[in-house]
Amino acid sequence: MRLIESIAPLFFVLIIIEVLYTYKYKLSFYSFRDSVTDLSLGTLSRIADGFILLGIVFVYQALQTSFAFGSFFPSLFVSSKSPLSWLILFILVDFLFYWAHRFAHEINLFWASHVVHHSSEEFNLSVALRQSFVRNLFIGIFYLPLAIIGFSAEAYLITDALNRTYQFWVHTRIIDRLPNWYEWIFVTPSHHRVHHAVNPRYIDKNYGGVFIFWDRLFGTFEEEKEEPVYGVVKPLGTFQPIWAEVHVFAGLFQDFRLTKNKWEGILGFFKPPGYRPSDLPAYPKPKPISPYSFIKFYPKGKETNKFRFYIISQFVMIAVSSLILIKTYEKWSYTEILVFTYVIVFSFYSLGRLLNSQTDVIRYEFAKWFFWALLLGYLVF
Description:
It contains 16 helices and no strands. It has helices spanning 2-24, 32-66, 75-78, 83-106, 108-118, 135-142, 145-149, 153-168, 180-185, 189-195, 213-218, 241-258, 262-267, 305-327, 334-355, 361-380. The two termini are 34 Å apart.
């Protein structure tokens, strides 16, 4: 995780470069409100990551201690001092990522966390940062076999960070096709544009993180042949980051509450997306999607320079405060961390209402500033 934090400034530099490129060539690859939502969701995910990864590492090390199968393998294959072991681990991590990613599209409970990443109707580098706050909780489960094999927790975390770092740059529409040999082995922007598309032929394709040959091997590969339409089949229809995080979870729990067949309600968490208990009306079938029929969600309200400046300043304030909290967790009590986190989450909620141009946003902004004043007073006095 330190690797990602270290190169995070590079991510932002690349995003700025892409924004400038699209502005120069008049390409509509970015939406201001959508990108702020992307970055807000990225910030929220980082707040939760620390706690979740601590839990994953604890379980990982417990498994490694209890099932020390690593002693049965030559150190050449599992020792952190062996270059070959790092290569093997890198391939294994991507193999496990493929299956974690695939199940995230096939099982409601996992999709509820992964849908966050797909709910943007744009496709650009800022979308790469659009992650769920519980992403690591679900995907980390799939990496636990590495502990039983004998790879150290540190080696796993470093390799996972490298895997995720590679995935950042493939979220772009600027890069077209790469040489054929590269397209056959590695995931490219063309492959990943297909993965994020809702065109019928593209849905649930190209799950690989670094290597595309997993998709070729397991029958989930699709080549980019028609213009992708981005988003999800049932559009999110809001720039509210908090609702983007929880809307599928909310739907699953609502179905469980409404159905009389509680067992079916429980099974719903493990069924494919679109499933509903038999006594509830089925979701309407989505209309055929094409680049010409898909209407993006944009709220009413002009994006004046004052509006954009206020949005950016609020995002920076919240994001910097989040970063400070993440870097100083050990200095605070659990109650203080809970209160600080609540204020940050509420601030992002109010920011979402601003992005949606909701008429009642003034009272939420007032409450936000009241919370920050109390928090500042507590820290100072």
